[in-house]
Design goal:
The structure is a single chain. The protein has eight helices and 15 strands. By secondary structure, it is α+β, with helices and mostly antiparallel strands. The chain has one domain. It has a five-stranded antiparallel β-sheet with strand order 3-5-4-15-12. Strands 1-9-8 form a three-stranded antiparallel β-sheet, covered by helices on one side. Strands 10-2-11 form a three-stranded antiparallel β-sheet, with no helix packed on it. The longest helix is centred in the middle third of the chain and has 29 residues. The protein is globular. It comes from Paraglaciecola mesophila.
């Protein structure tokens, strides 16, 4: 459970942030939320899919990194198998807070907060939040920019997904894998692009999709499922 607090020079002048990678920092997860802005980079190495929130019914864009809770096959000790790590993990332990409870984050009502329960937060090693003059350090400035990208990207991703749903372009993904011992596992609740419906869009809609970058994103997301086989091979190697 995150324990976010407002970042303040007097309170956090001695606070340091560990920037390494590893399960100890909560990176041993089998799904990671991502934004549409990341699709081009993610498509090179990650299988992407949509997940539906059981409470809200809303879809979100994610990458699949393992086949069971607590498993991240991209993570090897304190190293990742890929050069690109999703923004959702890179921004930790920082969070965007809102000044009005229940309000949707905007540029006018957001504040930067720090998760004090994160294993990254300490006073012994890592990056400083402030310089000697009490100004935000280069590291903190980078994190502020990263959270800005994430917040604006979340808004664009919501619009992207809404557009896909309007055109019936999201369908259930049937995923079944065979492990080294012959065991078969079936996974439900994953969704991907309905390529048949995508190809059947009229010319005006296709042009609009192309102009917004949606068409390329759809094909990259659909093609990225090919990386699932890589995950299967990594999984087999651990058995």
């Amino acid at each position: 459970m995150a324990k976010p607090v407002l970042i303040d020079f007097k309170q956090h002048s001695e606070t340091l942030i560990k920037t390494g990678r590893g399960a100890q920092f909560g990176e041993n997860v089998h799904f990671i939320p991502v934004i549409a802005d990341e699709v081009r980079a993610l498509a090179l190495a990650y299988p992407m899919c949509f997940l539906k929130d059981n409470n809200t019914g809303q879809f979100g864009l994610n990458v699949l990194t393992g086949f069971e809770a607590g498993e991240n096959l991209y993570l090897q000790g304190d190293q990742w198998r890929t050069h690109y790590v999703p923004i959702h993990l890179r921004r930790q332990p920082f969070l965007v807070g809102v000044t009005e409870e229940g309000a949707k984050p905007t540029n006018d009502n957001t504040v930067l907060t720090l998760d004090m329960d994160s294993a990254r937060v300490n006073t012994e090693q890592g990056e400083s939040l402030f310089n000697e003059q009490g100004k935000p350090s280069d590291y903190l400035t980078q994190m502020i920019d990263l959270l800005g990208q994430l917040m604006s990207g979340n808004n664009r991703t919501e619009v992207f997904i809404e557009t896909l749903l309007e055109h019936d372009l999201i369908e259930a993904l049937q995923l079944s894998i065979t492990l080294k011992d012959g065991q078969q596992k079936r996974f439900d609740g994953l969704y991907n692009i309905n390529e048949a419906n995508l190809g059947a869009l009229n010319s005006d809609t296709l042009e609009a999709f192309h102009n917004k970058g949606y068409l390329q994103a759809c094909y990259l997301i659909a093609a990225s499922t090919g990386h699932i086989q890589t995950l299967v091979e990594w999984k087999k190697a651990l058995q």
